[in-house]
# Entry
Amino acid sequence: MTIKVAVLGAHGRVGQAVVAGVEESDEFTLHASVGRDDALSAIDGADVAVDFTTPDAVMDNLKYCIEHGVHCVVGTTGFDDERYDTVRSWLEKNPEVGVLVAPNFAISAVLTMVFAAQAAKFFESAEVVEFHHPNKLDAPSGTAVKTAQAIAQARKDAGIDPMPDATKQALDGSRGALVGDVPVHAVRMTGMVAHEEVIFGTQDQSLTIRQDSYGRESFVPGVLTGVRQIADRPGLTIGLESFLDL
# Structure
């Protein structure tokens, strides 16, 4: 029995790649390709909806899916604690539904976040730099924020002293945005797709962990992993790492 998949945002670049990935696999059936002007009722009867739309549209899409018993795999950006709490409240009324929200579906990006959290306790300094195409709507990226949060928590758990930084005069924003105690820098540049560097430093040594996605197809294996498993994971899951046994 194949899994019936509806793709919301199907005409966007990532959406098109997901549609192609679903169609190329014998495990899945493309139930619906839903664009901006299509009715959400097109997803009725799907097993799983994949959402790569916009921050303005995703919450209405999620509410509809949960109310209609459709599991969700979401790569749309713009989630914060308030939005997560809203999704949880909807799921309380339909506890059998599973929702996965991941800031990044590239396996290399997920591993970067995991490795960064492991490395954080060994270094005095840590900073995150993310690079994306200029059409990205949010900054910093959800991936960079989640990476920095994991580093900050690991530093806190290890009881590491505050990072050394003697800067007294700087242009606004030149030291990045702080996530916990970790500076995060966002680059928006033509020619980029999605990239992240995590830089660690301590006495006489440094470590750089870098991840590069060169095309939107890099997200497809992770998305399909989520689609494959989401029915067995009711409730809200944040991040793909638990689906990879990490």
Notes: Residues 106 and 221 are 8 Å apart (CA to CA).
